[in-house]
Amino acid sequence: MSGKSKIEIKDHLSMDEINKLISDLKIGVNLYKRLSFIKSVKQGTPITHAAEFVGVNRGTGFRWIKQYNENGLNGLIPKYGGGRPSFLSDEQLTELKEILSNSNENYSIHDVQILIKEKYSVEYSYKQVWEIVRKKFALNYSKPFPVYENKPENAEEILKKTSKK
Q1: 41: domain range?
Q2: How far apart are CA 69 and CA 60, in angstroms?
Q3: Are residues 98 and 122 in the same domain?
Q4: pLDDT at 1 exceeding the cut of 50
Q5: Can you tell me the distance from the alpha carbon of 97 to that of 91, in angstroms, rounded to the nearest whole number?
Q6: Is 81 exposed, middle or buried (0-12, 13-18, 19+ CB in 10 A)?
Q7: Residue 61 falls within a domain, yes or no?
Q8: 111 in a domain, yes or no?
Q9: Structure confidence by residue, pLDDT tens digits, 4-42
Q10: Distances (CA, A) of 27 to 20, 23, 78, 136, 164
Q11: What does the CA dihedral 129, 132, 134, 140 come to, rounded to 10 degrees?
Q12: pTM for the full predicted model
């Protein structure tokens, strides 16, 4: 199935708000998974089977049991560091997205990498620039087409005249 959806989605939430909610739910889902594992083991299911049921390896199951035994429920709550902060500020990322979205120029990932280095003095890997452009900004590739510098102002009129002959 290709093409754009014909159903309009209203802007009740920004993409940042949606991403935050998804991130918050991941913690809840992982806690649910860990609690299900503990419940299963407490009911007599072998650790190997309970771990397989929730989709983790046996060693992870033993680690969860140890954390639960030492700290109770708090031992099962995932503790994510949140990752490394971006080298570009939110304002810089917004500005970069505006540049890429509103430009007549077609930027490749490599071109964006160079643009970031020149404009913000930040060096990102090709993969990281791809992640920013494709995932964070949700920008797609566009097919470049030639723009002729020597094109006459009335090119469409000339074309109409020659096609009628």
Answers
A1: 25-75
A2: 14
A3: yes
A4: no
A5: 10
A6: exposed
A7: yes
A8: yes
A9: 657 777 788 888 887 788 777 877 888 899 999 999 999
A10: 11, 7, 6, 21, 67
A11: -80
A12: 0.46
